[in-house]
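notes to self, project folder thing:

trying the whole complex as one job this time. last attempt i did each chain seperately and stitching them together was a nightmare. two parts in total, labels are on each line so i dont mix them up again. if this works i'll redo the older ones the same way
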Amino acid sequence: NAGVMQNPRHLVRRRGQEARLRCSPMKGHSHVYWYRQLPEEGLKFMVYLQKENIIDESGMPKERFSAEFPKEGPSILRIQQVVRGDSAAYFCASSPNRRGSAYEQYFGPGTRLTVT
Amino acid sequence: AQKITQTQPGMFVQEKEAVTLDCTYDTSDPSYGLFWYKQPSSGEMIFLIYQGSYDQQNATEGRYSLNFQKARKSANLVISASQLGDSAMYFCAITRQGANSKLTFGKGITLSVRP
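result (full assembly):
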């Protein structure tokens, strides 16, 4: 019973390149949340997705960032034209499709993005 | 909007002693949940304990207990019998109960356990 999987665990990109971060939720989970953790900070919510739908993207930067969760395959967080300020740890969390399960949010190990 | 405040500087505790990590929160939601997570130096987020706003009793999970004082809007984490492996960052978080359970985190507290 695998947990939430994220890959790659570490990603190095040069300024201007694209970064793609993948998240495979736990089996049976259809809700995915993405969070960003800047150095010395807590996690900050970015986006909440269900299969094929973006439910809440209130934490996403207006430009260069996008997310999807297709019917098949992992959720993808995409950052275009990365800048040094995008260097952070990106975590995804998944939860089951069940009302009242607010506490059942399971985190992946995170992807550490370094922009050089 | 929801907010979590964690203002303690780095905390130190002697091995086998108890320690309290402070957390205060602000929310306009009538129904909410409070969480504590541990983040060791390896970086993963480890769920420790959950308290629902309408739970009558304070939550406990092994050596972790949550001192929930609703009127004061505080949700302090108590770790009993500290171990060296407890050295880590600790984050308090809040969510609105309901379908969109996005978490709002505090800035965290560093705990160091001394042998």
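what i see at first glance: The interface with chain B takes residues 31, 33, 35, 40-45, 48, 55-56, 59, 89, 91, 93, 95, 99-103, 105-107, 109-110, 112 of chain A (CB under 8 Å).
need to look closer tmrw
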